[in-house]
Amino acid sequence: MPIAVEAAVAAKLAFLDAFREAGIGKSEFGRRIGRDEKEVRRLLDPKHANKLSTLTEALRVLGRHLIISDEAAA
Q1: pTM to 2 decimals?
Q2: How many domains does the chain have?
Q3: In a domain, 67, yes or no
Q4: 37 within 8 A of 61, measured Cβ to Cβ
Q5: Per residue in 16-48, is it b (16+ CB within 10 Å) or e — as a string?
Q6: pLDDT computed for residue 5 by the predictor
Q7: 66 is a domain residue
Q8: Distances in Å between the alpha carbon of 17 and those of 12, 70, 71?
Q9: pLDDT, tens only, 4-48
Q10: Residue 62 confidence (pLDDT)
Q11: Could you tell me if residue 30 is inside a domain?
């Protein structure tokens, strides 16, 4: 059953899942996205808040795109 979460939380979870599935290391991902490993570590830290635009770009680099939808509250 789906649950409602903030867009940034959903994006972070999607990124973490996509990164794990990609099977690449932090350094390789950093090269792909054009950022240093320190920034990649922050992206991978579940406790670190990232901008939605940064997570969207990270997902794009991994061949994914983020879809956000809304519906009427019950």
Answers
A1: 0.87
A2: 1
A3: no
A4: no
A5: beebeeeeeebeebbeebebeeebbeebbeeee
A6: 86
A7: no
A8: 9, 22, 25
A9: 888 999 999 999 999 999 999 999 999 999 999 999 999 999 999
A10: 97
A11: yes
Band of residue 3 on the pLDDT scale cut at 50, 70, 90: confident
Contact 54, 43 (CB under 8 A): yes
Q: Which long-range contacts (CB under 8 A, 24 or more apart) does 50-56 make?
A: 50/8, 50/11, 50/12, 51/8, 52/7, 52/8, 52/11, 55/8, 55/11, 55/12, 55/14, 55/15, 56/11
pLDDT at position 33 is: 95
How high is the pLDDT of residue 20? 97
Domain-embedded: residue 74: no
Domain, as residue range, for 36? 7-61
Q: Which residues of 12-58 form beta strands (DSSP E)?
A: none
